[in-house]
Write a structure and sequence with these properties.
66 residues, binds zinc ion
Length: 66
């Protein structure tokens, strides 16, 4: 069965999405990099998720837990 996603706002097929980088905020602090997917037709945001490619900040080696 083919998956045919439709934009909930404009009802067009979602064959492409605009991907934007954004920063997830928790209590006013930037905590994580996120990416959002928005409809290319009406720019409604379809979803946001953590950007798995980017880490919020490079952590030092976890082995040195003093
Ligand atoms: Zn749309």
């Amino acid at each position: 069965m083919a998956i045919q996603g439709e934009c909930p706002k404009c009802g067009k097929r979602v064959l492409h999405v605009n991907v934007e980088q954004m920063v997830g905020m928790v209590g006013g602090d930037s905590k994580a990099r996120c990416i959002s997917f928005s409809c290319i037709h009406c720019h409604a945001v379809l979803g946001v998720q953590l950007d798995a490619r980017a880490k919020p900040r490079p952590r030092r080696k976890a082995a040195s837990a003093s």
